[in-house]
Amino acid sequence: MGLVASCGGGGATEAGGEGGASGEPIKIAVVPPTSGALAEFGTASREAWEYAAQEANDNGGILGRPVELVIKDTDATANTTLSAVREAVTQDGANFIGGIMTSTEHNAVNQQLEGLNALSFNSNGKDDALTGDSCKPNAYRVVQSNLMDINALADSLADLPGEKWAIQAVDYSTGHDAAAAFTTAAEAAGKEVVLEQFAPLNTTEFGSYITGLKNSGADALFAVEYGADGVAFVNQADQFDLTDQFDTVLGFNMVSEPLFETLGDRIVGFKNNVGYDVNADNESNQSFVEGFEAEYDEKPYYVHADNYLAAQTLFAGIEAAESAETEDVREALKDLSFDSIVGEVTVRSDDNQVLRPSNIGEVVEDGDGGLAFDILQTADASVTTPEASDACTM
């Protein structure tokens, strides 16, 4: 499954196939980070959109029109990302946007969407405000919100070992939101949070934070550290035997399949939210996993899957609208239900949140010398998803 043309450094990627798609292309801006702690996730976002575009084109396009990606680079800062989005829309003709990573970037971009006459599909940013007081009618969230994931964790928290919890989180909106929601859930489960610590993104030295955790008196840890930051934290925690004092280490997107080889058996027994179950037994998922693995020689993990789901959402909206015009697609997406790689999902029109299940998994040895997630529990969207916020006016 090859790409016909790829121009780096902010150029367009035309995903062409044998399906004979014709007519004006449907242009999608993909704006993932290419540097810093989130670069690996940025690569996964781009790969998923490229796969979805190529797959669509191999099957004749969407409404018979080819899908064309406009790839832009960013450093995951709001100003850089917003500039890249504006260029993709005003100069390159894209009117759909994907691949943006952080909630801060999404918030900045979402403010401009109506003026740009573009729709954005968020598959990475979990900040609850994005479907709360910062919601926008042209912004869709495909990934679970922090609160949806926390509610899934809360559903099992009472049964997890540990009474006194410490929180170690990244110092930006997602980390603070996750910490606040976890504290509420812990208290509801009869647990106590004895320490909260926040480390800036791109922290490489966690010594002082580890000292705080060791002295906290906690017997369980909730950790919200991502990418390279998560690797640094886990490695340094292991050096100081930190996790030995905890009955439970519960990560929030801290350990994921791409990091299993790097982190090794030191994370066996860690628990983590698992937004996407690669082994989910439905036809759409099985087809995705088989095709993606054949293309990239690896199974997809949650960043791949959530970005592919964003593409599925967009394509379902275009097909339901029988149009790729922004307003038509936006109208068609209202309360639209469709079959996806995570089962049937619905785009809730009250806040443009995609309603989908959430999982809790434990890192285990897979029997072949590697690691895998053992899914401990799956919570339906009806359990995890709060009512749409009154602060969200569409």
Automatic annotation (TrEMBL):
UniProt keywords, alphabetically: Amino-acid transport, Signal, Transport
InterPro entries: BCAA_transport, Leu-bd, Leu_Ile_Val-bd, Peripla_BP_I
Taxonomic superkingdom: Bacteria
CDD domains with a match to the protein in the record: PBP1_SBP-like
Matches recorded under Gene3D superfamilies: 3.40.50.2300
Location of the Leucine-binding protein domain: 25-367
Record-linked Pfam families: Peripla_BP_6
Location of the region described as Disordered in the Swiss-Prot/TrEMBL record: 1-24
Keyword Metal-binding assigned: no
Keyword Ribosomal protein: no
UniProt feature, compositional bias: Gly residues: 7-22
Family recorded in the similarity comment: Belongs to the leucine-binding protein family.
Designated name of the protein: ABC transporter substrate-binding protein
Organism, scientific name: Citricoccus parietis
